[in-house]
Amino acid sequence: MTGIIQAFNEGGIFMYCILAFGLFTAAFIAERANALFFKMKDVPSNFRAQLLQNLSKGDYLGAQNMAQNIANTTNSPLARIAALGAQLRTNGAGDDELQARMDESLSKEISNLDRRTGFLGMFGNVATLLGLLGTIVGMIHSFGAVASASPADRATLLSKGISEAMNCTAFGLIVAIPALVAYAIFQNKTDKAVTALTESTTEIFNDLLFLTESDRVAANASQQRQLSGGRSVERPAPSMTV
């Protein structure tokens, strides 16, 4: 620990900038890992089957409550989108409104999945550049001091400047490597989650669209039969030609 502190102090002013980015990197890694791997869980394997069971019976409110309960317990974006779609159908929303609102909800969930991940890539690149900048500044100080120093002090000043330069490079890479590795892992996880969410949302939208459409067609046909059975149909009198 003493050696690390000494190396940090010898690195110059840019070490504090690298330290700040290192703290931000650690905080963002912890937050993204918690959000993508621990906080968010998948819906049960029979989620769609339960949803279809309610929709096939025309129980849109039951489908909404089931999806909302799963969303509350698993924090699943798919369950929240399904609950919204069932709620819209419960309130008698049309097909266009259903598609528009579900697309809005899907976009919001994708944005929540992808937020802050890009900062890790930026932190890794900036930490590397700060290390490089500290290296260049250290070398400038080193050669500038050597040029005006006495022959007895040149070796000491040169080693001090090189130490400053190398420490900045090392600490910059120490921050950059975990940031870039974490960025790649989280981005891969996000891409897979977004693809699965988009495909599942499309399936649930089609279920809501076609099952509720068949219910409306059946209801209209039943209403027409009732109206036809409750009144007499008058036939036009035949025309007489002379």
Query: What's the alpha carbon Rg, rounded to whole Å?
Result: 33 Å
Strand content: under 5%
Specify the structural class. Answer: mainly alpha
What helical percentage do the residues reach?
over 70%
Number of helices: 8
Low-confidence stretches: 217-221, 232-242
Shape field: rod-shaped
Give the count of structural domains.
1
What does this molecule look like?
- The chain is mainly alpha-helical.
- Helices cover about 85% and strands about 0% of the residues.
- It has one domain.
- It has helices at about 1-10, 15-40, 45-55, 60-75, 75-90, 95-115, 115-150, 150-230.
Characteristic key phrases:
242 residues; single chain; rod-shaped; disordered C terminus
Put the structure in a nutshell.
The chain is mostly helical and about 240 residues long. The chain has helices at about 1-10, 15-40, 45-55, 60-75, 75-90, 95-115, 115-150, 150-230.
Topology readout:
Elements: H1 2-10, H2 14-39, H3 47-56, H4 60-74, H5 77-90, H6 95-114, H7 117-148, H8 151-229
Helix pairs in contact: 2-7, 2-8, 3-4, 3-8, 4-5, 5-6, 5-8, 6-8, 7-8
